[in-house]
């Protein structure tokens, strides 16, 4: 059976617009005002009930759904769809008080208490029993309710627990993975430091220890933690699906968030959704945001996804929280639309008066509707209706970038050549030049089918399986262009070093191999074969060409720094250092030339993001200056209705959504030339 997806919400509604709605924080007379203001703002989706466990179940086994009935009825009367949350992210104090074993324990053995949120042990049977009993009743109660459009399971999964029950669950997981203790000892390399396990009971979570913990144990622990949470997610999801097979199920991700292997999670959801809060102090935030959005699109298999949470203005959880200047809310939201989002939601609808987030912005601020912020929200809601036609439209990309959670986990263990190698920063440094050049990139897992892409970039893949390395090799032989960054292909899935010259499983396709990692302090001068120089930093490798040409060399001793190898029908690049951004730009251009891929704009402009979605070309000015952007073809701006012939002028934070005339096929025998 095909599962319902985001289209079941957007069909008839167009783009989704709304936010988290927490009516339990307000007296009921406020709800009516909420509904009226939501309608006026064009809100068509709200997430309800995320933190309502204690309100629904004030004491063990009690059920108070009457208030929630009234909320859902009100939303239905107002024509607003409900993304109903299972409130299991924050159990009430009575659960932790009566059953302390449901509370999580940190790696030092300290129990974490209630009084905040997220205080549950993913492997606690008692937590699960209480959570599922509530979810069952919630699902039964609201199955068939006309407002119910989407299920939101829990909130931002990422909990970790080191209690005895978690250790037991970890052992069960390990038994399923390895079968017996001998295999576990082998996989974890326990002959090292006398770590051999003679009895399963000895195997525990990587609790606080005197010195560096076994990296293979740590890697399996991270796999287990992600799987344990996923197992809980699935248990809730299955209950929901049983009661409401036609209602899609999601849970909100947090982008490149380390604890949860999003590739394995996304397969289990009907809708991919994300919470994203760009750092206003980071000048590169627009590009980082684009990367995160591209990851969501990748997780959604190239289809639409939902921006579940963003801030209308300031957050409250960074140390210093400036508001978003006028226009940024719109710019950031339209950036998500451009990169495949079909829904733009906020945390939250109405600003809280009390609690830990009383200084977090909202769509409706404390000062009320008659404010510049709320006026921007209304205008944005209106404008999104003009863009309804983009819902469901694809974002085409010919370039893929590989990212993998287990490799990330394995790379960042203690005890390596340099702890300055960071998987996400490495990914971002390779992503940035493509973003700047208006080249759309899909994020994919290492196991993805690469054959549809002209260029595949692997910024870092420290851990690689034989199968994935084999598929990358075959991809190049079949005509693909592959770029591989440093310290890739180093360990196998157990985090054991692959012996021989590195990167052992990619050596043949790269036509190069190395023998030593040489992290460096300060910049290292490098020289392109043509003579131009650039700096690299942090990392160098002692590599020899084995058929590859040396495209750039370390200036000091002439050893290869960047190599290019023709293999079969394709080309493979290897980068044995960390080039500065301009040099990565040069590298991106050369690889794009090999792949025959062009950027969207004839002349990219600094700070202007360009991306196509469906028949619309989005241009977003993230910079601080007005720019004139030459266009590939004349077009009409969907947002202003004005025609753009040859170029558009974009003020800071301005956005253009350009529709180009569709190329017409001349009737057969007719030799009219169409010039666009
Ligand atoms: C998210 C969370 C929301 C709210 C928001 C504040 O992490 O899901 O409940 O806390 O952050 O930015
Ligand atoms: Zn636990």
UniProtKB/TrEMBL annotation:
Its EC number is 3.2.1.23. One of its GO terms (cellular component) is beta-galactosidase complex. GO terms for molecular function: beta-galactosidase activity. It comes from the Bacteria. Pfam families: Glyco_hydro_42, Glyco_hydro_42C, Glyco_hydro_42M. It is an enzyme of class 3 (hydrolase). Keywords: Glycosidase, Hydrolase. Residues 397-597 form the Beta-galactosidase trimerisation domain. Gene3D superfamilies: 3.40.50.880, Glycosidases, Golgi alpha-mannosidase II. InterPro entries: Beta_galactosidase_C (IPR013739), Beta_galactosidase_Trimer (IPR013738), Class_I_gatase-like (IPR029062), GH (IPR017853), Glyco_hydro_42 (IPR003476), Glyco_hydro_42_N (IPR013529), Glyco_hydro_b (IPR013780). Residues 607-657 form the Beta-galactosidase C-terminal domain. Belongs to the glycosyl hydrolase 42 family. This is Beta-galactosidase. The lineage of its organism: Bacteria, Bacillati, Actinomycetota, Actinomycetes, Streptosporangiales.
């Amino acid at each position: 059976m095909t599962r319902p997806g985001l289209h079941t919400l957007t069909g008839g509604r167009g783009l989704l617009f709304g936010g988290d709605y927490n009516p339990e924080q307000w007296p009921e007379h406020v709800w009516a005002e909420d509904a009226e203001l939501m309608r006026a703002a064009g809100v068509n989706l709200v997430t309800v009930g995320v933190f309502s466990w204690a309100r629904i179940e004030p004491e063990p086994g009690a059920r108070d759904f009457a208030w929630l009935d009234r909320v859902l009825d009100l939303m239905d009367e107002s024509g607003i769809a409900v993304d109903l949350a299972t409130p299991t992210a924050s159990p009430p104090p009575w659960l932790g008080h009566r059953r302390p074993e449901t509370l999580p324990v940190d790696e030092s053995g300290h129990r974490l208490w209630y009084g905040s949120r997220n205080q549950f042990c993913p492997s606690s049977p008692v937590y699960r029993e209480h959570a599922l009993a509530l979810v069952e009743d919630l699902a039964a109660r609201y199955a068939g309710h006309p407002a119910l459009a989407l299920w939101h399971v829990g909130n931002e999964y990422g909990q970790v627990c080191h209690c005895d029950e978690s250790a037991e669950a970890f052992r069960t997981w390990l038994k399923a993975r390895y079968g017996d203790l001998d295999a576990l000892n082998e996989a974890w390399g326990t002959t090292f430091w006398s770590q051999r396990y003679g009895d399963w009971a000895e195997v525990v979570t990587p609790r606080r220890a005197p010195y560096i913990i076994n990296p293979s144990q740590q890697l399996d622990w991270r796999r287990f933690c992600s799987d344990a949470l996923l197992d809980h997610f699935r248990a809730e999801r299955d209950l929901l699906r049983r009661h409401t097979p036609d209602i899609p199920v999601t849970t909100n991700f947090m982008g490149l968030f380390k604890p949860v292997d999003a590739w394995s999670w996304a397969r289990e959801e009907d809708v991919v959704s994300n919470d994203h809060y760009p750092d206003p102090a980071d000048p590169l935030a627009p590009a980082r945001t684009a990367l995160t959005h591209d990851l969501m699109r990748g997780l959604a298999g190239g289809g639409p996804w939902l921006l579940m949470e963003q801030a209308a203005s300031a957050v409250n959880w960074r140390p210093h929280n400036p508001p978003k200047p006028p226009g940024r809310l719109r710019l950031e939201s339209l950036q998500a639309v451009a990169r495949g989002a079909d829904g733009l939601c906020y945390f939250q609808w109405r600003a809280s008066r009390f609690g830990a987030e009383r200084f977090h912005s909202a769509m409706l601020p404390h000062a009320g509707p008659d404010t510049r912020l709320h006026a921007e929200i209304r205008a944005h809601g209106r404008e999104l209706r003009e863009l309804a036609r983009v819902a469901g439209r694809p974002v085409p990309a010919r370039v893929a970038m590989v990212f993998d959670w287990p490799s990330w986990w394995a790379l960042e263990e203690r005890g390596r050549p340099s702890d300055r190698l960071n998987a996400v920063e490495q990914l971002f440094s390779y992503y940035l030049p493509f973003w700047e050049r208006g080249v759309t990139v899909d994020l994919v897992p290492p196991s993805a089918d690469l054959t549809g892409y002209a260029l595949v970039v692997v910024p870092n893949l420290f851990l690689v399986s034989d199968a994935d390395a084999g598929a990358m090799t075959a991809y190049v032989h079949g005509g693909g262009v592959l770029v591989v960054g440093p310290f890739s292909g180093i360990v196998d899935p157990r985090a054991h070093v692959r012996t021989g010259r590195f990167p052992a499983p990619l050596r043949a396709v790269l036509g190069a191999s190395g023998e030593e990692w040489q992290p460096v302090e300060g910049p290292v001068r490098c020289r392109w074969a043509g003579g131009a120089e650039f700096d690299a930093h942090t990392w160098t490798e002692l590599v020899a060409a084995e058929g590859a040409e040396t495209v750039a060399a370390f200036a000091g001793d002439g050893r290869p720094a960047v190599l290019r190898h023709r293999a079969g029908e394709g080309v493979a690049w290897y980068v044995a250092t960390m080039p500065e951004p301009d040099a990565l730009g040069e590298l991106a251009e050369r690889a794009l030339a090999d792949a025959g891929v062009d950027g969207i704009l004839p002349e990219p402009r600094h700070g202007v993001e360009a991306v196509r979605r469906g028949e619309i070309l989005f241009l977003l000015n993230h910079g601080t200056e007005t720019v004139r952007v030459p266009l590939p073809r004349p077009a009409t701006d969907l947002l202003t209705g004005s025609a753009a012939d040859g170029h558009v002028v974009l003020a800071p934070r301005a956005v253009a959504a350009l529709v180009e005339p569709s190329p017409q096929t001349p009737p057969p025998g007719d030799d009219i030339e169409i010039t666009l």
